[in-house]
Amino acid sequence: MRRLLPVAGVAVALMMAGCTDSSAPDDAPSRKPAPSSSAPASSGQSDEAQVPVAKPPELDGSEHLAGQQPETRGNASFSYAKGAAGDALIVAARCRGAGTMKVEVKTVNVSFPLECQAGETATTYNQIGVSGVEKPGTVSVTAPSGVHWSMTVGRGEPPAEDQE
């Protein structure tokens, strides 16, 4: 199942106000793929837990790839490509291991935390529709060294406005 969390306007300001930038000395950057400890879980878990972290999240057929980070452990940054005006930015993260990842999209001044669990693979999709998302940029992740993650950044239709 795909969880889509729209990020826009006031919600961005509220999320950013609650985030702090801290990293422990043990959280040194690691851009190498992590060992195979994130292999699929046993058959007694949900289908989502079966997806290995080594496989970055996929985009929908209508979305276009802008950047991707293979399985990584701990802190890392990677770049993504420019998009078309009017498109939203999609940040899809997959993680496994106990701890909180902090994801920062510096170009649009957006950050959000993702809770990761030991023995469980979780995938979260965030759709960002704020000014400047069409620009190329960088995603930076701060995570404990025991958290394995992969990420896909894409471009797609902007979030639908609530009709009231």
Question: What descriptors fit this protein?
Answer:
5-stranded mixed beta sheet, 164 residues, 4-stranded antiparallel beta sheet, single chain, globular, 39% strand, 2 helices, mainly beta, disordered N terminus
Quantity of strands, as a count? 9
Strand content: 35-45%
- What are the secondary-structure elements, in order, as H or E? EHHEEEEEEEE
What is the radius of gyration computed over CA atoms, rounded to a whole number of angstroms? 15 Å
Shape: globular
**C-alpha end-to-end distance:** 26 Å
Which strand order spans the largest sheet, edge to edge or round the barrel?
Answer: 1-7-4-9-2
Overall pLDDT metric: 76
User: What is the count of DSSP helices, taking H or I runs of 4+ residues?
Assistant: 2
Main sheet characteristics: 5 strands, mixed
Which percent bin holds the helix content? under 10%
**Low-confidence parts:** 3-47
Q: Strand pairing plus helix content: what structural class?
A: mainly beta
Describe this structure as you would to a colleague.
By secondary structure, the chain is mainly beta. A 5-stranded mixed β-sheet has the order 1-7-4-9-2. Strands 3-8-5-6 form a 4-stranded antiparallel β-sheet. The longest helix has 9 residues. The radius of gyration is 15 Å and the shape is globular. 34% of the residues are buried.
